Amino acid sequence: MAKARSSRAVVQTAPGHFELHEFARPEVTPDDAILRMELCGICGSDIEQYDGRFDDIGWTKGPTIPGHEPLGVIDEIGERAARRWGVQAGDRIAVEPLIPCMECEACRTGNRTRCSGWGRMFSYGLIDTAVEPVLLGGYSEYMYLHPNSVVHKVSSALPTSVAVLFNPLAAGIRWTVAETDLALGDTVVVLGAGQRGLSCVIAARAAGAGKIIVTDLARAAKKLEFALELGADAAIVADEEDVVERVLKLTNGRGADVVVDVTPVATQPVHDAIRIVRAGGTVVLVGVKGGPKTTLDTDEILRKSITLKGILTVDSPAYVKAIRLLERGGLPFERMHTASYSLERAEEAIHHLAGRLDGPPAINVAIRPGA
């Protein structure tokens, strides 16, 4: 079958504005590849990018093809790339968002998520279209795979709507377990019950947490119900209840061993986290605020000997564990995927995940280029 010579892609040309463009298909060299997109998951941060918040904090500049959760099938691949990645044409893969430089100190010491070699945030979905080859975002029919990409093979037997959860589930694993040394019987509080908050619940339960408490707003009541089904022990409606008071009551005044804030934009959860974590506990900050600033009570952090961790994105070990968990099954993963939208309806997809459409809130939404 003849290879497609071009690819349609969504381009964000300004805050709150998408356009559908067509680009020439890049030529494949021995070191790179072309991915035929199946689905691209929409991250909560895609909403902030769409709203222009990433421009404000310097993560994007100029027109971009959004999408940093790509799932697809290798359409064409160079010889050295095939050997390096251990894949071949026809394999389904999940692609990590960050493209490491492989030369800076962080990359050389195995900390690729802290890469500083490009001098900017070099991630699929955040790179302006002036950078060649252009197809460096997942809201596209085809995506160029940079030689430094990090990819993971995914079983073709998995439904696409389940396989696309590789990114949020990996986030839950890294943020809640791998980075906190969560121990059997520990109490975990997850602030936010979106796709990554629910993934934190799954990860905490799989790791043997003793008590899991989840919070969200009243409009997300269905997500809180689902969190309980996935293994949470208690759900708190943050705009109807006092989060701090309720957590302390549920923990008999002790507080939580681990608190993970996955909420976007809002800064109040950061303050709540510091108040509800136990002395010597860990607070993980992963919800991108996209500009809003807050002041912290550093005396309280000091007095309670709190470990405060900011974590950017997900590392390779977490992706491997997430894909294995999805392939093993046993949980209602298919119910986490709410809807898929065509390229032409990408803005509608963003608004759906953001809760700006009528109807119940979405959990996981994706772009299906062929839809």
List keywords for this structure.
Rossmann fold, 13 helices, alpha/beta, Quinone Oxidoreductase, Chain A, domain 1, 371 residues, globular
CATH class of the largest domain reads Alpha Beta
Our Rg estimate from Cα atoms comes to: 20 Å
The protein's oligomeric status is single chain
Per DSSP E runs of 2 or more residues, the count of β-strands stands at 15
Strand content: 15-25%
CATH superfamily of the largest domain: Medium-chain alcohol dehydrogenases, catalytic domain
What's the arrangement of secondary structure elements?
Blueprint: E1 6-14, E2 17-24, E3 33-41, H1 44-50, H2 53-56, E4 70-77, H3 79-85, E5 92-95, H4 105-108, E6 142-145, E7 151-153, H5 160-163, H6 166-178, E8 187-191, H7 195-206, E9 211-216, H8 221-230, E10 234-237, H9 243-250, E11 256-261, H10 268-276, E12 277-285, H11 298-303, E13 307-310, H12 316-328, E14 337-341, H13 346-353, E15 364-367
Parallel strand pairs: 8-9, 8-11, 9-10, 11-12, 12-13, 14-15
Antiparallel strand pairs: 1-2, 3-4, 3-6, 3-15, 4-5, 5-7
Description:
Helix 6 (166-178) crosses helix 12. The protein is globular and about 65 Å long. The chain has 13 helices and 15 strands. It has 371 residues and is an alpha/beta fold. The two termini are 21 Å apart. Helix content is 28%, strand content 24%. Strands 3, 4, 5, 6, 7, 14 and 15 form a seven-stranded mixed beta sheet that branches. Strands 10-9-8-11-12-13 form a six-stranded parallel beta sheet, with helices on both faces. It has two domains: 6-165 and 336-367, Alpha-Beta Complex (Quinone Oxidoreductase, Chain A, domain 1); 168-310, 3-Layer(aba) Sandwich (Rossmann fold), CATH 3.40.50.
